[in-house]
Amino acid sequence: MIKVILWDIDGTILDFKASEKHALRTCFSLFHLGDCTDAMVARYSEINRQYWNRLERGELPKAQILVERFETFFRQENILCEDADAFNQAYQIQLSETICFLDDAYHILQDLSAYVKQYAVTNGTYAAQKRKLEASGLEKIFDASFISDEIGAEKPSIEFFSHVFRQIGPYPKQEILIIGDSLTSDIQGGNNAGIRCCWYNPQHQKNNTHLRIDHIIWNLNQVKDIILKS
Ligand SMILES: [Mg+2]
Questions:
Q1: How far away, in angstroms, is 143 Cα from ligand 1 center?
Q2: Whole-prediction pTM value?
Q3: CA 12–ligand 1 middle distance (angstroms)
Q4: pLDDT of 204 higher than 90
Q5: 141, 110 Cβ separation under 8 angstroms
């Protein structure tokens, strides 16, 4: 019987792509950098993803990737932005301004709170994630939120999950389910922690890993069934 859900936020509950595009476009305008086309957003997004993968592998500290991703992007696009640090800070604020739910996630989580405890487990920066949780109303639904910045460890590290387990109290591992869209952080993390894993895969991507995945869903409305049948 699943009693606890650990929810990833970006790309699982909230539409990160929509927020990313909005934030980037707004900052381009704030910093007078000209137009930011869809193609540029896509190229930035890919650079950002690569940097984030390096963070997950523990190759670079977060403070460094946050600024470097923009330096790399601007260099590639031949855009002159003298203060990538300031750009990043503005971007973090903008990133939390657009709240866009995937699959009516807000009501799904609201409904699930009658059955299970729910916690946020996210790797985003403290400022951006905290604002998002407040602005979205999710903070009121979650029993607590765990942001990697605050803990000093990232998913998929066992340090991150050990901290979460200490805070939520004792549960058998099979009663805890992590739900997330990322194989490298959420599912790898769930495997490391020995809890049940649900991969949210709305784009029907291929799984090229050997990770243990207990459930695969493409719509968050499928979660309730997993809980009720567990
Ligand atoms: Mg995610």
A1: 19
A2: 0.83
A3: 5
A4: yes
A5: yes
